[in-house]
């Protein structure tokens, strides 16, 4: 899969956004880091899939609850309520991007070290539950 230069920049911005948000949570919900992480994440996502597809993704009728919670959480972070903003934003993020978890887990299971770690007995059941994987009773 070949990426354009804008998409490569978008991947970098999204990665830095996720890192800044993780760092902001680890530093006891530092509002500045969380706000910067949110800006980088949303702008990176826009560069990766394009402005029109980003708008259509967030404006779909099935995703409206997730969109409202995600954007409301970002707004709360900007208004200096980082703890409650991140809780609401996480709920919105899970509603918006929860469909991608099985794809991510399948990809991670194909990686050399991480795949064997995710295949360990107790970890496998937790990851399957998070990803929504179902096993057959037969």
Automatic annotation (TrEMBL):
<feature type="transmembrane region" description="Helical">
    <location>
        <begin position="100"/>
        <end position="123"/>
    </location>
</feature>
<keyword id="KW-0812">Transmembrane</keyword>
<keyword id="KW-0472">Membrane</keyword>
<dbReference type="GO" id="GO:0042147">
    <property type="term" value="P:retrograde transport, endosome to Golgi"/>
</dbReference>
<dbReference type="GO" id="GO:0030134">
    <property type="term" value="C:COPII-coated ER to Golgi transport vesicle"/>
</dbReference>
<dbReference type="InterPro" id="IPR007305">
    <property type="entry name" value="Vesicle_transpt_Got1/SFT2"/>
</dbReference>
<keyword id="KW-0333">Golgi apparatus</keyword>
<protein>
    <recommendedName>
        <fullName>Vesicle transport protein GOT1A</fullName>
    </recommendedName>
</protein>
<dbReference type="GO" id="GO:0000137">
    <property type="term" value="C:Golgi cis cisterna"/>
</dbReference>
<keyword id="KW-1133">Transmembrane helix</keyword>
<dbReference type="Pfam" id="PF04178">
    <property type="entry name" value="Got1"/>
</dbReference>
<comment type="similarity">
    <text>Belongs to the GOT1 family.</text>
</comment>
<dbReference type="GO" id="GO:0005783">
    <property type="term" value="C:endoplasmic reticulum"/>
</dbReference>
<dbReference type="GO" id="GO:0000139">
    <property type="term" value="C:Golgi membrane"/>
</dbReference>
<feature type="transmembrane region" description="Helical">
    <location>
        <begin position="35"/>
        <end position="56"/>
    </location>
</feature>
<dbReference type="GO" id="GO:0005829">
    <property type="term" value="C:cytosol"/>
</dbReference>
<dbReference type="InterPro" id="IPR045176">
    <property type="entry name" value="Got1"/>
</dbReference>
<dbReference type="GO" id="GO:0006888">
    <property type="term" value="P:endoplasmic reticulum to Golgi vesicle-mediated transport"/>
</dbReference>
<feature type="transmembrane region" description="Helical">
    <location>
        <begin position="68"/>
        <end position="88"/>
    </location>
</feature>
<feature type="transmembrane region" description="Helical">
    <location>
        <begin position="9"/>
        <end position="29"/>
    </location>
</feature>
């Amino acid at each position: 899969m070949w990426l354009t230069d804008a998409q490569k920049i978008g991947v970098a911005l999204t990665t830095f956004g996720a890192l800044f948000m993780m760092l902001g949570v680890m530093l006891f919900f530092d509002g500045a880091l969380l706000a910067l992480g949110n800006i980088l994440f949303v702008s990176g996502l826009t560069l990766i899939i394009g402005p029109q597809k980003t708008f259509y993704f967030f404006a779909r009728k099935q995703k409206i609850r997730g969109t409202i919670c995600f954007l409301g959480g970002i707004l709360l972070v900007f208004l200096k309520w980082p703890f409650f903003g991140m809780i609401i934003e996480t709920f919105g993020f899970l509603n918006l991007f929860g469909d991608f978890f099985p794809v991510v887990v399948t990809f991670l299971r194909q990686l050399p070290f991480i795949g064997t770690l995710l295949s360990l007995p107790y970890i496998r059941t937790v990851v399957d539950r998070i990803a929504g994987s179902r096993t057959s009773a037969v």
